[in-house]
């Protein structure tokens, strides 16, 4: 194997830059060439001269950025390689949300795998993750802590089942709300899912682009108040926080973060990121020579692999 270039991908104030291919990944400000791993706002921005992402990622971005310029978009299909300068690039599903991609980059015989956000747990609403080997794994480390273990999602969602009140369920608009809708549809078909208007368009895109058809209705106050108390109203975080005095409903927020469970009536630990056990499993399958950590704290991984594997934070300019 050729030498691993420690500056192959570096972090600057804009995003993650590869000078060997002259492109960014998940840039936060307009650049000439930007690869977008998925459509969440902390990864996907508009205004770049050329953007490379999956069709689903661009569909979600167009919903958010209606004035997105069409000729800046380069749709990339999973497992179909393309080249920027001398770097050969392939997208693989990341299992995070619909259209989310891992970015495999090969340069001078060395493979660098940027995970973006990813999960291993089953999720019928998005493409399952594909495991591929790489020499350098550039992994998110959101929950890279031995103290974090995500429970089975079926057990968590069923906490909403036997309640005599309607439920207001806080969750992120893109990805999480659609996953929760599918879980409720499958495991509690007697429950009626109502979605906030900001989620409604995204749900429709999931039904158009994904393999799982979601059953839901657009929220209205009358529907929530009338009839049986079998309704679960999905709302984004800002709305959830503004309804902290809501009456006649049980409050829950679906997240892997413990701090977001405080002061709620029901704790729902459902995350769309890998936990400690899953990140170790993923590293074992990728078989990297080095692990570079991003989006979190890599200290626990560094300690765990001390003397076995090089683990470091990604370089900064």
UniProtKB/TrEMBL annotation:
Keyword annotations from UniProtKB, A to Z: Exonuclease, Hydrolase, Nuclease
GO molecular function: exonuclease activity; RNA endonuclease activity
Segments forming domain Metallo-beta-lactamase: 35-161
Coiled-coil zones: none
Descriptive protein name: Exonuclease
This protein's record includes keyword Nuclease: yes
Matches recorded under Pfam families: Lactamase_B_2
SUPFAM superfamilies linked: Metallo-hydrolase/oxidoreductase
């Amino acid at each position: 194997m050729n030498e691993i270039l420690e500056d192959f991908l570096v972090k600057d104030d804009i995003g993650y830059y590869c000078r060997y291919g002259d492109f960014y990944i998940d840039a936060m400000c307009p650049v000439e060439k930007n690869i977008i791993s998925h459509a969440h706002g902390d990864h996907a921005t508009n205004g770049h001269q050329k953007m490379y992402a999956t069709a689903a990622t661009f569909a979600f971005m167009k919903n958010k950025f209606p004035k997105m310029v069409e000729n800046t978009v380069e749709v990339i299909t999973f497992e179909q390689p393309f080249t920027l300068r001398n770097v050969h690039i392939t997208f693989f599903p990341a299992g995070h949300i619909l259209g989310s991609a891992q970015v495999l980059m090969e340069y001078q015989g060395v493979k660098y795998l940027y995970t973006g956000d990813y999960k291993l747990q089953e999720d019928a609403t998005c493409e399952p993750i594909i495991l591929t080997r790489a020499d350098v794994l550039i992994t998110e480390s959101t929950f890279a802590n031995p103290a974090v273990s995500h429970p089975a999602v079926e057990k968590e969602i069923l906490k909403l089942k036997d309640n005599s009140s309607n439920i207001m369920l806080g969750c992120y608009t893109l990805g999480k709300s659609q996953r929760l809708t599918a879980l409720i549809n499958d495991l509690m078909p007697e429950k009626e899912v109502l979605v906030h208007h900001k989620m409604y368009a995204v749900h429709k895109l999931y039904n158009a682009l994904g393999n799982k058809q979601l059953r839901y209705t657009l929220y209205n106050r009358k529907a929530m108040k009338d009839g049986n108390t079998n309704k679960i109203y999905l709302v984004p975080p800002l709305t959830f926080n503004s309804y902290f005095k809501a009456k006649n409903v049980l409050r829950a927020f679906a997240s892997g973060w413990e701090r977001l469970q405080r002061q709620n009536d029901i704790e729902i630990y459902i995350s769309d990121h890998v936990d400690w056990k899953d990140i170790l499993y993923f590293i074992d399958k990728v078989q990297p020579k080095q692990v570079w950590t991003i989006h979190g704290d890599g200290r626990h991984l560094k300690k765990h692999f001390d003397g076995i594997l090089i683990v470091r934070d990604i370089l900064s300019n």
